[in-house]
Amino acid sequence: MCAIEPHRDAGAYALGVLGAADACRFEQHLTKCSACVDQVRRFGVVVHHLAACAHRPPPSSPPRAP
CA angle 20-23-25, nearest 5°? Predict the structure, then answer.
């Protein structure tokens, strides 16, 4: 987690890629920062879509270059 600018960690927190200590510090930050709470909620939509894409089979043929 970036100690100077904790707001940058909202996406990493939503994706679950922060280490345990950083996630704990960010959760403490969330108790005081409604802007980050909103960002984490909005990133939740992205996380949901990424998870859905991860379960899709790959295309049958690679895309062609123009």
Answer: 110
Distances (CA, A) of 66 to 13, 58, 60, 63: 37, 20, 18, 9
pLDDT, tens digit, for every residue of 4-55?
A: 577 889 999 998 899 999 999 999 999 999 999 999 999 988 888 888 888 7
Q: Which residue has the tokens 């690679």?
A: 62
| 31-to-26, 44, 53 alpha-carbon distances in Å | 9, 18, 31
If one counts every other C-beta atom within 10 angstroms of the C-beta of residue 15, the result is 13
Whole-prediction pTM value? 0.70
Q: What is the torsional sign of CA 11, 12, 13, 17? A: positive
